[in-house]
Amino acid sequence: DVKVTQSSRYLVKRTGEKVFLECVQDMDHENMFWYRQDPGLGLRLIYFSYDVKMKEKGDIPEGYSVSREKKERFSLILESASTNQTSMYLCASSLEGEGADTQYFGPGTRLTVL
Amino acid sequence: AQTVTQSQPEMSVQEAETVTLSCTYDTSESNYYLFWYKQPPSRQMILVIRQEAYKQQNATENRFSVNFQKAAKSFSLKISDSQLGDTAMYFCAFMKHANFNKFYFGSGTKLNVKP
Predict the structure, then answer these.
(1) Chain A contacts of B100, Cβ < 8 Å?
(2) Which of A25, A105, B6, B16 would suit a FRET pair with B100, their CA atoms being 20 to 30 Å apart?
């Protein structure tokens, strides 16, 4: 089974702090994704990566950056956390190529910014 | 951009009954995939069922089946013999073929299965 893990289930940070959310997958997937999930808005894509050191902006990249130094690990960085970044953050991974389509999700990190 | 609409924010169903969750989408693509994901309370999101747009036959997975109407751009999920463990948020998602597997999600439907 594919396993996607996230470093924390719950996180509380203060406004202005730099925040790192880590995601690791164990199935050698090329693609990795960061979403935020808010009530009534579903999942919105922040950033994704299709290879090591490669990244693309999603629909809501403002205030976030990402890092992918190794294939299995994809980090989401909040350079200066703000209260409007309080949310559930979900990481996902998938294969690339013909016939590959399903995304596999981590358990999520519920971030509260005070 | 593709849009996915789930018009039912919350639904309830009695245990053992059947319920249908609605999803519509907007795209100009002809080759794509559609998905239903389930997110139980405080648990991981998991795939329920997927449909490839070029396949006319509706996908089924045990008690879960879809009604895929390509011309109407509709993709509803039917859950038969509802169980308490089906209580969850359900998300409909769209993926354009060969696009780094970028998904577009609906806003979700919260399903409550009552004993």
Answers:
(1) 31, 48, 50, 56, 96
(2) B6
Residue A109: name the closest of A49, A37, A56, A43 by CA.
A37
Mind telling me how many Å the CA of B94 is from chain A's nearest CA? 10
Half-sphere exposure of B47 (CA within 13 A, CB side): 20
Question: By C-alpha distance, which of B90, B97, B44 is closest to A99?
Answer: B97
Question: Alpha helices, DSSP H only, in chain A?
Answer: none
Give me the sign of the Cα torsion angle A20, A25, A30, A31.
negative
For B37-85, the three-class secondary structure string (H helix, E strand, C coil) is EEECCCCCCEEEEEEECCCCCCCEECCEEEEEECCCCEEEEEECCCCHH
Taking CB atoms and an 8 Å cut-off, how many pairs form between chains A and B? 54
Of B49, B56, B54, B58, whose CA–CA distance to B31 is shortest? Answer: B54
Residue A56 host element (H or E): strand A54-57
pLDDT at A2: 65
Indicate yes or no: CB of A100 within 8 angstroms of CB of B101.
Answer: yes
Residue A82's alpha-carbon distances to A11, A34, B89, in angstroms, are 14, 18, 27
Q: Which of B35, B37, B102 sits opposite A45 (nearest CB)?
A: B102
